Amino acid sequence: MNIVVCMKQVPDTETRIKIGSDGRSIDPADVEWIVNPYDEYAVEEALQMKERTGAGEVVVVSVGNERATTAIRSCLAMGADRGILLKTEHPFGDTFSIAEALANLLKEMEFDVLLFGKQAVDDDNAQVAQLVAHMLDLPCVTVVTKLEIEGSTAKAHREVEGGTEIVETSLPSVFAAEKDLNQPRYASLKGIMTAKKKQIEEKETQLGHFKIEVIEMLKPPPRPEGRIVGEGREAVPELMQLLKNEANVI
Amino acid sequence: MANGVLVFAEQRDGVFRGPAFEALTQGRRLAGQLGTDLSAAVLGSGIAGTVEVLKEYGVDAVFVADSEHLARYTTEGYADVFSKIVREKNPSIVLMPASSLGRDLAPRVAAHLETGLITECTALEISDGRLLGTRPVYAGKALIKTFVKTDPQMATLRPKVFSAETISESKETHVEQVDVTTGAERIRAKVIEFQSSGGDRPELTEADIIVSGGRGMGNADSFNVIEDLADALGAAVGASRSAVDAGWRPHPDQVGQTGKTVSPSLYIACGISGAIQHLAGMSSSKYIVAINKNPDAPIFKVATYGIVGDLFEVVPALTEEVKKLQAA
Q1: ipTM attached to this prediction
Q2: Which residues make beta-bridge pairs with B136?
Q3: Domain region containing A100
């Protein structure tokens, strides 16, 4: 089984975000970069699929600058076979142009399963999996919490309001991973050593067809100063009074 | 030339969901500012009789796509039909709720139409005749203001951020059936089963009130004090990442950067210290109550009202007070 995972390098979720001097993107200084957490579930799922079938390869593809090779290397250390970097210097991507760049590469590749994380935790767009699926004319299931493959059919569990949809689809197909899908493995020391010898192919890429324009990035308005109502259960009646008469929420 | 505002009015089993009304209300406001019409598209099966309620939101036209193959949502089927409606009606703005369905569908429709999409907007305005959407990025640690450069300009609206308001005067609404005789054979991914998560509690992303527990809960069983308060208030139950990672609550309950982003009227955080990861997911709540032993916990910095104390004393006392209030 051949599996391709599309992965994005993002700031660590603990990062404090500073607005950059252009006023439209973040200041990358002091940011610690990681594999997008949802993409780690996608990589883990790909590795498990390959282990179950005992054949094929797992390829990790990323769009980003030179720095993204470290994130690809982390995925190779987990066990992926090789990586491809679509190299571009554009700082804050436009989903459509990124999807186009990925689709252009992917249509030359052979795969049974194409995995994404359900969204990147930086721009939180949650669009690229569906855009790429449409550009490649493939079915796509998003927010997948469980994935079972049998022959050329897949059953994917998808979390929605009030329950779980079980979606059946034919392969090849696109899936976007949600947190519950699996428990990503840590790279072993051996994995980290082997990863150094694995291939990462870099392809210079021009992004085109921008559909959106970010005009400003700003900090969210600060919340109004709160107050400590009191200590322990003695404070409960006053809290009730405030919720009822001041906030009018109960 | 593209003209008008079109809203995807999401329904499930013939019932329109709150986020659809929120999108219609914003659509009406934007259409008013542009001096153009508001229309709604409804996809489903056997739904002709359900569209009456949309008139209360001041729509000028409703486009109804009624077909058996649209009874259950499929990405491909809905994207095909909705894109066809958008192409035919040629609106300049298309709004959709950022519900599970909208989040899945909107990008596929944008791909069909080769246009730009701003997801999860928390504010919408018209600037120089174009739609300007504000949306959180980095899980709410920053906001961006974005234009769509192409037509139609697509946006999804984060649930619970906008209010749903009906109009008082009655209005003439044109209802039109859309031809959807083909397309079923092109659908490859189909829902074969729906497993309800059960329970009567509201959905986390749609709830007016959320009661959440964190590391301070100590174990899975003690979440019953959270559940008791939630049930007394008719609220949803949430959890911090540490409570979910410890296995005390399922992941669908997680609020924060790798969970859900919520904007209820009231968010009650119990035993949650307020890691930046968690704050990102809930700090757009209208009112926040924090109950925590540690007076220095960061959660108190965002809380409207705080109580320093043992949640196992405070929360049950609060539940009692709520019950007393309701009995009065």
Answers
A1: 0.95
A2: B143
A3: 3-204
